[in-house]
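To whoever picks this up:

The parser on our side crashed when reading a file containing two proteins. I've narrowed it down to the boundary between the first structure block and the second sequence. Both blocks are reproduced below exactly, byte for byte. First block:
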Amino acid sequence: MIRKKKMLVDILLPVYNEEHVLESSVISLRKFLSENVTDFDWVITIGDNASTDKTLEVAKALEDKYKDVNVTHLPLKGRGRMVKYAWEKSEADILTYMDIDLSTDLNAFIPMVEAIMGDYDISIGSRQFKGANVDRSIKREIISRGYIKVLKLLLGFPYTDAQCGFKAVSKKVVNDLFDHIVDDEWFFDTELLYIGFKEGYKVKEIPVRWIEDRDSRVKIIRTAWLDIKGVFRMMGYKKKNIL
């Protein structure tokens, strides 16, 4: 009897100056995957974005220690830039990424991957979908909910979250859509979802338990301004009938 080959899932961890948390997060993630994943194979990719501390050094030490950990490096910052680079380079069947602080409870990871193993093209962790459990500051809550309202009002955006750092896509989505995604920073997520929606790709929202990282590197005001600029750019998006 020929045993069917399992799908390979690549878990990207984009990092910038995260030497203080990188090793502990990789150890926690490996432990979770080793104890809970049975239906697919997996590999962890640490994606270093121009770190100026010892992040890359720590990452390479983890790569040397664990055969299922790889490291890739870019000399420029930008989460979107790293996600695009790493996912296009990867040979995995399913591409995922999550924030290095593991602010999203890992119990949502397997359902997110299973959605892609089924008939969905993109699956996302959502902090506002029914069943989600979120612990964050009032400021972050107001900004997040306000951003979704803007997306719905100006773009007809159908999802409840755009920026949660917990997503998965099929390799087909990468091959089909990434040439059309312009942003290299935080708006990348919104652009991916909006173009996917406009082109008819199936998106699954997964409610998550999420705890805000009080040491986040995100500059909220600057990011919000760039997001708004991105929204107005997306208002001019013309469907390309990619499917």
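<<boundary where parser fails>>
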Amino acid sequence: MEHNQLVCEDARVLANEGVGPRLFVVSLESPRIAARLQPGQFVHLQVPGMPDHILRRPFSVFDCDPQAGTLDILYQDLGYGSHRMTDLCAGDVASQIGPVGHGWQAPTGTERALLIGGGVGAAPLFLHAKALLAAGVAVDVVLGAATKAALATYDAYTALLGHAPVVATDDGSFGFSGFCTQPAADLLAAHAYDHVACCGPEPLMRIVAQMAADAQVECQVSMERRMACGVGACLSCVVDTTDGKRRACVDGPVFESSKVVW
């Protein structure tokens, strides 16, 4: 996939709603970026109202409508910047750079794919699922979360797939009781997949990468790193790979899991 030309755009906030415990979805009117964005790419957002923080923050794109010129970001209220985002209201404007990075790219001829999202890692897989389904690929989805209330993407995936995704919750409040690695392993044992994609906590991706390798299935992971510039200049987001150090922002965030040095 060739890198799209980066755009710096003032995005207008359309809505900013709570969707779970400390989970929010902000909808942005950003037509130039929405028209260029590929599944798995992200935006580098300048959170307004933070003059003492000059660095932008990277956010994966959950959903995108190029025709409407809009995109949705699922985020978690974890720190100063993300907490400030919860105050954004319709009509506010936020500067963002995008689309950034190398996204998902299933192998040519893929007929069946397994997508595994842990926590907010389910968000950057959603557009990938859309694209695969549009291409006629059979898609199975496994979602993992701490609790039922934290399954913020469950309804969206159910509507997209036409049936409920496989779910695991740490506390057993919904679906499989435990981590989503077990349902993923069960599906890998039951079906012949051509492609596995995973995003979530690094221990989850490391385990999925090994399971896919054992099953001899191609696998891609989206590596999250703290970023300063977000455009490949500062080298603050390096990922160790078998090809040397690579930048998560522009060489990733999606990498072949077999090339990541875990």
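After patching the parser it read the second block fine. The radius of gyration is 17 Å. The mean pLDDT is 93.
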